[in-house]
Design goal:
- It is built from five helices and two strands, in the order βααααβα.
- It is mainly alpha-helical.
- The chain has one domain: 434 Repressor (Amino-terminal Domain).
- The chain is globular and about 40 Å long.
Length: 94
């Protein structure tokens, strides 16, 4: 069964942020700008967060300029043999 994960996603999105803006953003600074606890950012990146408020997730996405499905990823989602839908296509459908 697929599992919802966030492991490594914050690091990748921070890199994407730096590429698009030219500014380096640390996890601590991200937490400050989004108004969320820094521990939440670190737990999300480690894949250890068990509970995330939707408002906090929305604020992180707003600062990073991303969508929720770029932070929350279905890990281990098998390809659907009936239509060939992959994990990326599944995430795009939401």
């Amino acid at each position: 069964m697929p599992e919802l994960t966030t492991k490594g996603r914050i690091t990748k999105l921070l890199g994407k942020y730096q590429l698009t803006t030219g500014q380096r953003l640390t996890p601590r600074r991200l937490a400050h700008l989004a108004g969320v606890p820094k521990d939440l950012v670190y737990r999300l990146d480690a894949g250890l967060a068990r509970y995330v408020e939707l408002e906090a997730l929305a604020r992180l996405c707003q600062v990073l300029g991303c969508r929720v499905d770029e932070i929350l990823i279905w890990d281990g989602l098998p390809e659907d043999p009936t239509n060939g839908a992959s994990n990326a296509e599944f995430n795009q459908s939401f």
